Amino acid sequence: MPEPTTPTPPRRAAGGVGTHPAAPAGPRPHAAGVGTSPARPEAEAKVNGAFDYASDLHFDGMLWGHTLRSPHPSAGIRAVDTAPALALPGVHAVLTAADVPGKLHYGLIDADQPVLAAGEVRYQGEPVAIIAADTLDTARLAAEAIRVDYEVREPQCDPQAAVDAGNHFRYQPVRLGEPVTAEAAVIIAREYTVGMQDQAPLGPESGAAVPTGDGGVRLHVATQWLHSDLEQLAPCLDLEPDRIHMVMAGIGGAFGAREDLSVQAHMAMLALATGRPVKMMYDRAESFLGHVHRHPARMRYEHGADEHGRLVYVKAHIVLDGGAYASTTDAVVGNAASLAVGPYEVEHVAIDAWGARTNNPPCGAMRGFGGVQTCFAYESQMDALAEALGLDPLEIRRRNAVAQGSRLINGQIIDAPSPAAPAVVGSDAVPQAGTAPSPAPPGAAGADARPFSPLADMIDRIREIPVPAIPAARDILDLPGGTGNTTHGEGVRRGVGYGVGLKNVCYSEGFDDYSTARIRLELEDGEPVATIHTAAAEVGQGHWNLQTQIVRTELGVDRVRLAPNDTKVGSAGSSSASRQSYMTGGAVKAAAEAARALWTDRDLADGPIEATRVFRHRATKPMDAITGQGDSHVQLALCVHRATVDVDVELGLVKVVDLTCVQDVGKAMNPNALEGQIHGGTAQGLGLAVMEELVTVRGEVKNASFTDYLIPTILDMPPMRLHIVENADPEAPYGLRGAGEPPTLSSTPAIVAAIRDATGLALTRVPVRPEHLTTGRPS
Amino acid sequence: MSEGMRVRMRVDGAEIAADVDRPGESLLTSLRDRLGLTGSKNACEQGECGSCTVLLDGLPVCACLVATAQCEGREVKTVVGAVPRPVRDAFVACGAVQCGFCTPGLLVSVADLLDREPDPDDALIREALAGNLCRCTGYEKIIEAVHVAAEAMSDGVPRVPARSHLHHNQWINVTTFPRGDAETGEDTP
């Protein structure tokens, strides 16, 4: 991949020829700094076809790797005969579990997943053997030639039955008060189902492993977290971590799919076995089997409210299907439990959340991470309560909205100032930053007796944005069914619905979450140039650009360079949990501040300055195993959506005609990229609402292709109207709030609520499919 | 494996010969793996995603669905040779590129659209780009980029819109609360 260089913004007035620029006194506005929308540093390469994605890698003399996967969701392996594959011309290595050099298992949280299956397989698609050959075709033929003697077993595919049998990765209850029905004027009890969603990044899993000649290996791979990959890989390869050099390859989207290992251990094993570079690249079908998915969920909810619509109690029984291996199910269950009632005040709560172990495909990280499933359920419940009480759906949310000082169900106080500023440690003598001044509460609080509620404010704002009118004359193409020309408007009903989402930002539950940044300042042609070195994954969200903006703001330099992301600098953590602006943004800011301080005392003509900083957010606490209580989240972010839909109630076709969104982002660091995140997150929520489901039957995936797994096209997406709110978080760098995930939570329930409004159906399952709308429809 | 064959074609203006040893090899595989021309992307290889869209004798096709053997003597234009500068500039300026994996195919489709229809409305844009999947953007800024590109190409004046979304979407508003100076407070003397 070409080293990303950023376009030099228009020159500002600077020192004349012969004078060396001096350090700025502090951060200051820059034409391409924080709050502006400069072009991304890698955009030019991306529009010229010159950006090297992991699937574009090529090394001289390289072999192609391929994976033989289990066709069975559950089976014993009696024997694997690799001889027929090895006998094929052009095949250089065929490896099985017996060839794993070190530890046999890996995993993000629990190391329970076999590098290659030994003795049994637990899901369809589990890797059994790997092949290196001259061409990918040859490697695929070799995989077909391998004889595996399976003893096929009955798969365990029912998550509730698995939980009943004690097969779960985590059980997390939350208990608060005494949830009793007596005081409730209205009780709503319903069961909700969320299908298995896939991240479906367009770039396939891919990478290349290159032997370094001294027994070590260099991996070029598209991943969300280089250092976690390294930590998991090294023991499996039986190599010291410093013998493995991880280098980021160009990433074609991630959305959680690149959080777990895919090609990494396999291609490294093949490269070490053959002594040659080995490239691996999944095709789309293998991609669907080769990464984790969003947990499908079954959730039984009971909400009790008084006659004014104030919540009295909430009970929920949540079963998330973790599939065959642990992946991040532990953390997903924690999120589902702690965020189970959403951004609403309630005194009495009994939540039981499980992550089941089954023979279904492993599930783990996807944008929204445990927050998406429960959001669909609790928002559906809020609508049902409103309907039962004759209340406006926005009004019932407003009446229950958390405010500053409110207690979440995990006992955490929302938006309360914390005694500890973000901790920064570094490798030079610059003292730690002091405590940030506590800001006054936002001005809107003033007259109201209640503490300021950011959510109530956002609800008021979305109410003010007009609902789009039904045009007098509509093009047939604009109706549900679109180019299919299935209606002239008869049977088409309009509906409007709302959804509110609450998402935690950064890693929760006491995890030591940190990021590292190194900044080097030097003179080139008499001008200061800053080089940023981090391991943070640019997955498409615009993080490289953000780093350059921060450095330009903090150091006032025009010329900024990004060193390739690799493991020669400390961990940046994952590009997930909406955390990278906060965490690596925080690290880059801290390193830039340190470099600025050093620059004040010296002339760059005397030599370069380098500063490295490790940034940590405030410490969090685990959730109590019995009560779920614990100050477990770092930061919380809110998003409100309104969906307007047209539904052809005769054919069951849905056309989303408008999505309006109010989101609190703390600080719009790069407005253009931010809008793109909200648009894209909203689109994935639309996908879950009406299109996307990876269908499994008895553990077998039935639609592992873009022909059968449908993601939104440009025809499926409506215009999106955004109102971005900057309600700064004083603890976060620049006041920002993580923004990538919240829209994915709230758009799904908003769309389903709109479909309910149009059809009068209860709709307790997503995705909503045509048959859900045409059968059981009230006449 | 069958006997090899040599296919001569013009790719982005250059005369190129591809030695193909399988009759079914796709144009996409030949471009990417045989000729090292990786500008066209391989997201699905079954004609669903549009990431490999190229112009074949001026018509947009999915390179993964065309056999290289069909391309003898024909002209292939990829993202490298098919896309006018203003279209690329508009995609960059409007934020229509995120991960960028769909971008080469989308750019070729947009080039084809603007060649047929210099000033398309939203409905035409949606119809023309319906075969190009994007997982990152929700398509909003892609639509906007097509409008910006069309405008730039109509008068030949290259433009880089500062906050160009207002061109297409007048409903992006930002509200900033008064607050303590968290932005600069810590380090400003």
From TrEMBL, chain A:
Chain intervals for the UniProt region annotation (Disordered): 1-43, 425-449
InterPro entries membership: Ald_Oxase/Xan_DH_a/b (IPR000674), Ald_Oxase/Xan_DH_a/b_sf (IPR036856), Ald_Oxase/xanthine_DH-like (IPR016208), AldOxase/xan_DH_MoCoBD1 (IPR008274), AldOxase/xan_DH_MoCoBD2 (IPR046867), AldOxase/xan_DH_Mopterin-bd_sf (IPR037165)
Molecular function GO labels: iron ion binding; oxidoreductase activity
Organism domain of life: Bacteria
Comp. bias (Pro residues): 1-10
Pfam hit, one: Ald_Xan_dh_C
Biased composition (Low complexity): 20-33
Coiled-coil spans in chain: none
Gene3D superfamilies from the UniProt entry: Aldehyde oxidase/xanthine dehydrogenase, a/b hammerhead, Aldehyde oxidase/xanthine dehydrogenase, molybdopterin binding domain
Domain Aldehyde oxidase/xanthine dehydrogenase a/b hammerhead as annotated: residue spans: 48-154
Protein name: CO or xanthine dehydrogenase, Mo-binding subunit
From TrEMBL, chain B:
Keywords, alphabetical: 2Fe-2S, Iron, Iron-sulfur, Metal-binding, Oxidoreductase
Entry GO MF terms: 2 iron, 2 sulfur cluster binding; metal ion binding; oxidoreductase activity
UniProt keyword annotation of Iron-sulfur present: yes
Domain of life: Bacteria
PROSITE patterns registered for this protein in UniProt: 2FE2S_FER_1, 2FE2S_FER_2
Signal peptide feature range: none
UniProt cross-references to InterPro entries, sorted A to Z: 2Fe-2S-bd, 2Fe-2S-bd_dom_sf, 2Fe-2S_ferredoxin-like_sf, 2Fe-2S_ferredoxin-type, 2Fe2S_fd_BS, Beta-grasp_dom_sf, Diverse_Oxidoreductases
Domain 2Fe-2S ferredoxin-type intervals: 5-82
Protein name: Carbon-monoxide dehydrogenase small subunit
